[in-house]
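Key result, reporting period 2: structure in, sequence out.
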């Protein structure tokens, strides 16, 4: 039968993409809203914004070409961020936690701030992405 034991095993991954899946605090078409209702990636219910981003280039998959946007939204722990490897397998995830601002541009773990050009590239994406925020806490 044996004796049960638990070990931490470190493994290296080739991270290719991050899925940003958030519920912005203020969606609407007034000047007071953070995200207009016609923002690319916003779902039909106008409550959830999803984007798959290439971590090396900052390119958003499926972006509506010719549509440049600035995004400055507050999400307040209402979203998830999932890392995928080059094979498309999920590697690590943050659920209902702070925005991983070491990877996704923003401030204070509550904000996402993106400058998206007409081809869907996030121009303020980090040149050297960091996955530090995805590391589990030490016991």
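The corresponding designed sequence is given below.
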């Amino acid at each position: 039968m044996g004796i049960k034991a638990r070990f931490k095993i470190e493994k290296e991954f080739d991270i290719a993409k991050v899925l940003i899946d958030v519920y912005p605090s203020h969606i609407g078409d007034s000047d007071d809203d953070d995200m207009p209702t016609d923002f690319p990636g916003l779902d039909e219910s106008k409550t959830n914004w999803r984007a798959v981003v290439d971590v090396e280039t900052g390119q958003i998959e499926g972006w509506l070409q010719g549509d440049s946007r600035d995004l400055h939204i507050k999400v307040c722990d209402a979203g998830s961020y999932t890392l995928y490897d080059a094979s498309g397998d999920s590697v690590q995830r943050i659920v209902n936690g702070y925005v991983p601002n070491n990877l996704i541009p923003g401030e204070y773990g509550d904000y996402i701030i993106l400058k998206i050009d007409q081809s869907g590239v996030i121009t303020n994406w980090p040149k050297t992405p960091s996955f530090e925020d995805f590391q589990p806490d030490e016991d």
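The longest strand covers residues 15-22. The chain has a mean pLDDT of 92. This case is discussed further under Risks and Mitigation.
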